[in-house]
Write a structure and sequence with these properties.
elongated; 2 domains; single chain; Rossmann fold; six-stranded parallel beta sheet; alpha/beta
Length: 343
Protein backbone atom coordinates (compact mmCIF):
# COMPACT_ATOMS: atom_id res chain seq x y z
CA UNK A 1 0.00 0.00 0.00
CA UNK A 2 1.45 3.36 -1.01
CA UNK A 3 0.73 6.67 0.72
CA UNK A 4 -0.92 7.84 -2.52
CA UNK A 5 -3.39 4.93 -2.58
CA UNK A 6 -3.99 5.29 1.15
CA UNK A 7 -4.88 8.93 0.49
CA UNK A 8 -7.47 7.77 -2.05
CA UNK A 9 -9.16 5.57 0.56
CA UNK A 10 -9.10 8.37 3.13
CA UNK A 11 -10.65 10.82 0.67
CA UNK A 12 -13.35 8.29 -0.22
CA UNK A 13 -14.17 7.85 3.48
CA UNK A 14 -14.36 11.62 3.97
CA UNK A 15 -16.63 12.05 0.94
CA UNK A 16 -18.93 9.23 1.99
CA UNK A 17 -19.18 10.53 5.54
CA UNK A 18 -20.00 13.93 4.08
CA UNK A 19 -22.99 12.49 2.21
CA UNK A 20 -21.45 12.15 -1.24
CA UNK A 21 -21.60 8.95 -3.27
CA UNK A 22 -18.29 7.58 -4.59
CA UNK A 23 -17.12 5.27 -7.35
CA UNK A 24 -13.86 3.47 -6.57
CA UNK A 25 -11.75 2.22 -9.47
CA UNK A 26 -8.84 -0.21 -9.11
CA UNK A 27 -6.31 -1.54 -11.63
CA UNK A 28 -7.20 -5.24 -11.62
CA UNK A 29 -4.85 -6.65 -14.25
CA UNK A 30 -2.36 -5.38 -16.81
CA UNK A 31 -0.75 -6.78 -19.93
CA UNK A 32 2.44 -5.40 -21.42
CA UNK A 33 3.36 -1.88 -20.39
CA UNK A 34 0.91 0.05 -18.23
CA UNK A 35 1.03 3.49 -16.58
CA UNK A 36 0.02 2.29 -13.11
CA UNK A 37 0.66 -0.99 -11.28
CA UNK A 38 -1.99 -3.54 -10.29
CA UNK A 39 -3.85 -2.45 -7.16
CA UNK A 40 -3.67 1.30 -7.89
CA UNK A 41 -6.77 3.33 -7.00
CA UNK A 42 -8.74 6.25 -8.36
CA UNK A 43 -11.89 7.58 -6.68
CA UNK A 44 -14.59 9.77 -8.23
CA UNK A 45 -17.21 11.57 -6.13
CA UNK A 46 -20.68 12.31 -7.48
CA UNK A 47 -19.87 16.02 -7.64
CA UNK A 48 -16.89 15.36 -9.94
CA UNK A 49 -14.09 15.56 -7.37
CA UNK A 50 -11.47 12.88 -7.90
CA UNK A 51 -8.22 11.64 -6.42
CA UNK A 52 -5.62 9.04 -7.37
CA UNK A 53 -4.54 7.65 -10.70
CA UNK A 54 -5.08 4.59 -12.89
CA UNK A 55 -3.45 5.98 -16.06
CA UNK A 56 -1.93 9.14 -17.41
CA UNK A 57 -5.32 10.86 -17.21
CA UNK A 58 -7.16 9.65 -20.32
CA UNK A 59 -8.80 6.65 -18.65
CA UNK A 60 -9.92 8.80 -15.74
CA UNK A 61 -11.54 11.22 -18.15
CA UNK A 62 -13.26 8.40 -20.05
CA UNK A 63 -14.59 6.78 -16.86
CA UNK A 64 -15.88 10.11 -15.52
CA UNK A 65 -17.77 10.62 -18.79
CA UNK A 66 -19.11 7.03 -18.75
CA UNK A 67 -20.33 7.26 -15.14
CA UNK A 68 -22.03 10.59 -15.81
CA UNK A 69 -23.94 8.94 -18.64
CA UNK A 70 -25.00 5.71 -16.92
CA UNK A 71 -25.27 6.98 -13.33
CA UNK A 72 -24.40 5.03 -10.16
CA UNK A 73 -23.51 1.38 -10.75
CA UNK A 74 -25.83 -1.14 -9.15
CA UNK A 75 -23.04 -3.73 -8.88
CA UNK A 76 -19.30 -3.89 -9.57
CA UNK A 77 -18.19 -3.87 -13.19
CA UNK A 78 -14.95 -4.99 -14.87
CA UNK A 79 -13.80 -2.89 -17.83
CA UNK A 80 -10.92 -3.51 -20.21
CA UNK A 81 -9.04 -0.88 -22.21
CA UNK A 82 -6.26 -1.01 -24.75
CA UNK A 83 -7.41 -4.21 -26.43
CA UNK A 84 -6.42 -2.88 -29.85
CA UNK A 85 -3.97 -0.30 -31.13
CA UNK A 86 -6.67 2.34 -31.69
CA UNK A 87 -7.86 2.15 -28.07
CA UNK A 88 -4.26 2.13 -26.81
CA UNK A 89 -3.59 5.36 -28.72
CA UNK A 90 -6.93 6.88 -27.70
CA UNK A 91 -6.36 6.31 -23.98
CA UNK A 92 -2.67 7.07 -23.96
CA UNK A 93 -1.62 3.53 -23.03
CA UNK A 94 1.96 2.46 -23.85
CA UNK A 95 2.49 0.46 -27.02
CA UNK A 96 0.83 -2.93 -26.59
CA UNK A 97 -0.49 -2.03 -23.14
CA UNK A 98 -3.80 -3.32 -21.83
CA UNK A 99 -5.44 -2.68 -18.49
CA UNK A 100 -8.41 -4.26 -16.73
CA UNK A 101 -10.25 -2.05 -14.24
CA UNK A 102 -12.64 -2.88 -11.42
CA UNK A 103 -15.29 -0.19 -10.86
CA UNK A 104 -17.56 -0.28 -7.82
CA UNK A 105 -20.07 2.03 -6.22
CA UNK A 106 -19.49 2.92 -2.58
CA UNK A 107 -22.31 4.12 -0.35
CA UNK A 108 -20.90 3.15 3.05
CA UNK A 109 -17.55 4.18 4.53
CA UNK A 110 -17.45 1.45 7.17
CA UNK A 111 -15.21 -1.10 5.40
CA UNK A 112 -12.75 1.49 4.10
CA UNK A 113 -12.55 3.12 7.54
CA UNK A 114 -11.79 -0.30 9.05
CA UNK A 115 -8.99 -0.80 6.53
CA UNK A 116 -7.47 2.57 7.39
CA UNK A 117 -7.65 1.73 11.09
CA UNK A 118 -5.82 -1.56 10.47
CA UNK A 119 -3.13 0.23 8.46
CA UNK A 120 -2.67 2.76 11.25
CA UNK A 121 -1.92 -0.21 13.52
CA UNK A 122 0.48 -1.56 10.83
CA UNK A 123 -1.66 -4.66 10.31
CA UNK A 124 -2.35 -6.48 7.05
CA UNK A 125 -5.99 -6.87 6.05
CA UNK A 126 -7.80 -8.38 3.06
CA UNK A 127 -10.97 -6.95 1.49
CA UNK A 128 -13.06 -9.44 -0.51
CA UNK A 129 -15.56 -8.03 -3.02
CA UNK A 130 -18.26 -10.25 -4.50
CA UNK A 131 -18.65 -9.20 -8.13
CA UNK A 132 -22.22 -10.45 -8.40
CA UNK A 133 -23.69 -8.92 -5.26
CA UNK A 134 -21.23 -6.15 -4.39
CA UNK A 135 -20.98 -7.48 -0.84
CA UNK A 136 -17.71 -6.77 0.99
CA UNK A 137 -15.93 -8.80 3.66
CA UNK A 138 -12.77 -8.11 5.65
CA UNK A 139 -10.31 -10.60 7.14
CA UNK A 140 -6.72 -10.61 8.41
CA UNK A 141 -4.14 -11.23 5.67
CA UNK A 142 -0.92 -13.20 5.75
CA UNK A 143 2.42 -11.64 4.89
CA UNK A 144 2.86 -13.67 1.68
CA UNK A 145 -0.63 -13.00 0.27
CA UNK A 146 -0.67 -11.42 -3.20
CA UNK A 147 -1.80 -7.79 -3.31
CA UNK A 148 -4.65 -8.51 -5.75
CA UNK A 149 -6.30 -11.88 -6.33
CA UNK A 150 -9.25 -12.84 -8.49
CA UNK A 151 -10.94 -15.99 -7.25
CA UNK A 152 -13.93 -17.02 -9.36
CA UNK A 153 -16.56 -14.35 -8.90
CA UNK A 154 -14.72 -12.36 -6.24
CA UNK A 155 -11.74 -10.03 -6.03
CA UNK A 156 -9.48 -9.82 -2.98
CA UNK A 157 -7.33 -6.75 -2.37
CA UNK A 158 -4.75 -7.13 0.38
CA UNK A 159 -3.72 -3.96 2.19
CA UNK A 160 -0.52 -3.63 4.13
CA UNK A 161 1.06 -0.67 5.91
CA UNK A 162 3.32 1.66 3.94
CA UNK A 163 7.03 0.96 4.12
CA UNK A 164 8.67 2.89 6.94
CA UNK A 165 12.37 3.77 7.00
CA UNK A 166 14.13 4.60 10.26
CA UNK A 167 17.43 6.40 9.69
CA UNK A 168 19.98 6.52 12.50
CA UNK A 169 22.17 9.63 12.43
CA UNK A 170 22.09 12.91 10.59
CA UNK A 171 24.29 14.12 7.75
CA UNK A 172 24.60 14.55 4.00
CA UNK A 173 24.01 10.88 3.11
CA UNK A 174 21.10 10.57 5.53
CA UNK A 175 19.32 13.58 4.07
CA UNK A 176 19.79 12.35 0.51
CA UNK A 177 18.46 8.91 1.46
CA UNK A 178 15.48 10.54 3.17
CA UNK A 179 14.60 12.61 0.11
CA UNK A 180 14.87 9.63 -2.26
CA UNK A 181 12.90 7.32 0.03
CA UNK A 182 10.05 9.80 0.32
CA UNK A 183 9.86 9.99 -3.48
CA UNK A 184 9.39 6.21 -3.41
CA UNK A 185 6.31 6.36 -1.16
CA UNK A 186 8.20 5.53 2.01
CA UNK A 187 7.52 7.05 5.42
CA UNK A 188 10.80 8.36 6.83
CA UNK A 189 11.82 8.87 10.46
CA UNK A 190 15.26 10.22 11.43
CA UNK A 191 16.67 9.36 14.84
CA UNK A 192 19.66 11.16 16.34
CA UNK A 193 19.83 11.81 20.10
CA UNK A 194 22.84 14.08 19.48
CA UNK A 195 20.55 16.81 18.17
CA UNK A 196 20.21 19.14 21.14
CA UNK A 197 17.77 21.67 19.72
CA UNK A 198 14.96 19.94 17.84
CA UNK A 199 13.27 23.28 17.17
CA UNK A 200 16.08 24.27 14.83
CA UNK A 201 15.93 21.03 12.82
CA UNK A 202 13.83 20.99 9.68
CA UNK A 203 13.42 18.48 6.90
CA UNK A 204 10.04 18.44 5.09
CA UNK A 205 8.12 15.19 5.45
CA UNK A 206 10.64 13.59 7.83
CA UNK A 207 9.78 13.02 11.48
CA UNK A 208 12.57 13.62 14.00
CA UNK A 209 13.23 11.28 16.93
CA UNK A 210 15.72 12.25 19.63
CA UNK A 211 15.25 9.23 21.90
CA UNK A 212 17.93 6.52 21.91
CA UNK A 213 18.07 4.40 18.72
CA UNK A 214 17.06 1.12 20.37
CA UNK A 215 13.91 2.77 21.72
CA UNK A 216 13.21 4.28 18.30
CA UNK A 217 13.48 0.85 16.65
CA UNK A 218 11.10 -0.69 19.16
CA UNK A 219 8.63 2.14 18.59
CA UNK A 220 8.77 2.33 14.80
CA UNK A 221 10.56 -0.52 13.02
CA UNK A 222 9.76 -4.04 14.20
CA UNK A 223 7.59 -5.38 11.35
CA UNK A 224 8.32 -6.80 7.91
CA UNK A 225 7.46 -3.54 6.13
CA UNK A 226 9.94 -1.47 8.08
CA UNK A 227 13.61 -0.75 7.43
CA UNK A 228 16.50 0.46 9.56
CA UNK A 229 19.63 2.10 8.14
CA UNK A 230 22.39 3.07 10.55
CA UNK A 231 24.47 5.98 9.25
CA UNK A 232 25.59 7.71 12.44
CA UNK A 233 29.29 6.70 12.19
CA UNK A 234 29.06 6.08 15.94
CA UNK A 235 28.98 2.45 17.12
CA UNK A 236 27.38 3.54 20.39
CA UNK A 237 24.30 4.62 18.41
CA UNK A 238 24.40 2.30 15.40
CA UNK A 239 24.86 -0.88 17.43
CA UNK A 240 21.92 -0.07 19.70
CA UNK A 241 19.61 0.17 16.68
CA UNK A 242 21.04 -2.91 14.97
CA UNK A 243 20.76 -5.03 18.10
CA UNK A 244 17.02 -4.39 18.37
CA UNK A 245 16.31 -4.52 14.61
CA UNK A 246 18.12 -7.83 14.11
CA UNK A 247 16.23 -9.41 17.00
CA UNK A 248 12.88 -8.19 15.63
CA UNK A 249 10.98 -8.81 12.40
CA UNK A 250 12.41 -5.72 10.70
CA UNK A 251 12.24 -6.25 6.94
CA UNK A 252 15.52 -4.54 6.07
CA UNK A 253 18.55 -3.84 8.27
CA UNK A 254 21.58 -2.07 6.80
CA UNK A 255 24.71 -0.42 8.17
CA UNK A 256 26.98 2.12 6.51
CA UNK A 257 30.74 1.64 6.69
CA UNK A 258 33.72 -0.19 5.24
CA UNK A 259 33.98 -3.96 5.10
CA UNK A 260 36.51 -3.75 7.90
CA UNK A 261 34.23 -1.78 10.20
CA UNK A 262 31.32 -4.09 9.35
CA UNK A 263 33.43 -7.10 10.27
CA UNK A 264 34.14 -5.51 13.63
CA UNK A 265 30.47 -4.63 14.01
CA UNK A 266 29.44 -8.24 13.46
CA UNK A 267 31.87 -9.33 16.17
CA UNK A 268 30.39 -6.84 18.62
CA UNK A 269 26.82 -7.86 17.85
CA UNK A 270 27.68 -11.54 18.17
CA UNK A 271 29.21 -10.87 21.58
CA UNK A 272 25.91 -9.22 22.58
CA UNK A 273 23.98 -12.39 21.75
CA UNK A 274 22.87 -11.88 18.14
CA UNK A 275 22.85 -15.28 16.45
CA UNK A 276 24.71 -16.06 13.22
CA UNK A 277 21.32 -16.60 11.56
CA UNK A 278 20.15 -13.10 12.46
CA UNK A 279 23.55 -11.58 11.57
CA UNK A 280 23.08 -12.90 8.05
CA UNK A 281 20.17 -10.46 7.78
CA UNK A 282 22.51 -7.51 8.31
CA UNK A 283 23.33 -5.73 5.06
CA UNK A 284 26.74 -4.24 5.56
CA UNK A 285 28.34 -2.51 3.81
CA UNK A 286 24.96 -1.04 2.96
CA UNK A 287 23.67 -0.80 -0.59
CA UNK A 288 24.09 -2.35 -4.02
CA UNK A 289 27.65 -2.57 -5.33
CA UNK A 290 27.64 0.29 -7.85
CA UNK A 291 31.04 1.66 -6.85
CA UNK A 292 29.57 4.67 -5.12
CA UNK A 293 31.95 7.15 -3.50
CA UNK A 294 30.13 10.49 -3.23
CA UNK A 295 27.27 11.01 -0.74
CA UNK A 296 24.73 11.04 -3.58
CA UNK A 297 26.07 7.80 -5.08
CA UNK A 298 26.09 6.08 -1.72
CA UNK A 299 22.53 7.24 -1.06
CA UNK A 300 21.40 5.94 -4.47
CA UNK A 301 23.06 2.59 -3.72
CA UNK A 302 21.37 2.30 -0.31
CA UNK A 303 17.90 3.22 -1.56
CA UNK A 304 18.28 0.93 -4.58
CA UNK A 305 18.98 -2.00 -2.28
CA UNK A 306 15.91 -1.17 -0.19
CA UNK A 307 13.79 -1.11 -3.36
CA UNK A 308 15.27 -4.46 -4.43
CA UNK A 309 14.32 -5.98 -1.06
CA UNK A 310 10.82 -4.52 -1.25
CA UNK A 311 10.31 -5.95 -4.74
CA UNK A 312 11.96 -9.30 -3.93
CA UNK A 313 14.42 -8.68 -6.78
CA UNK A 314 17.35 -11.08 -7.35
CA UNK A 315 19.57 -8.01 -6.94
CA UNK A 316 18.72 -8.08 -3.24
CA UNK A 317 20.35 -11.46 -2.70
CA UNK A 318 23.65 -11.55 -0.83
CA UNK A 319 25.97 -14.39 0.09
CA UNK A 320 25.65 -15.29 3.78
CA UNK A 321 28.32 -13.71 6.01
CA UNK A 322 28.84 -15.12 9.50
CA UNK A 323 30.30 -13.12 12.33
CA UNK A 324 33.50 -15.19 12.28
CA UNK A 325 33.91 -14.88 8.51
CA UNK A 326 33.34 -11.16 8.69
CA UNK A 327 36.00 -10.80 11.38
CA UNK A 328 38.54 -12.95 9.55
CA UNK A 329 38.31 -10.89 6.40
CA UNK A 330 38.03 -7.53 8.06
CA UNK A 331 41.69 -6.53 8.12
CA UNK A 332 42.26 -6.55 4.37
CA UNK A 333 38.82 -5.61 3.11
CA UNK A 334 38.74 -1.86 3.69
CA UNK A 335 39.51 -1.21 0.02
CA UNK A 336 36.05 -2.47 -0.83
CA UNK A 337 34.33 0.15 1.30
CA UNK A 338 31.08 1.49 -0.08
CA UNK A 339 30.92 4.53 2.16
CA UNK A 340 33.31 6.42 4.38
CA UNK A 341 35.14 4.25 6.90
CA UNK A 342 33.89 4.47 10.46
CA UNK A 343 36.16 5.35 13.34
Amino acid sequence: MTPADQSVLQAAVDWLQGGRGVHLVMVLRTWGSSPRPVGSFWALADDGASIGSISGGCLEEELARLLREIGPLSRPKVLEYGVNADEARRFGLPCGGRVELLVERLDDSESLAAILSALAERQRIARRLDLASGEVGLAPATRDAAAVQRDGNSVVRVFGPVWRLLLIGDGAIVRLVAEMAQALDTEVILCDPRIDDATGWSMPGVRLETRMPDDAVLAHATDARSAVMTLAHDPRLDDLALLEALNAETGYVGALGSRASNGQRRQRLASLGVSDERLECLRGPIGLAIGGRTPAEIAISAVAELVAVRNASPLAQRAPVSSSAGAAGAAGAAAGALGAAET
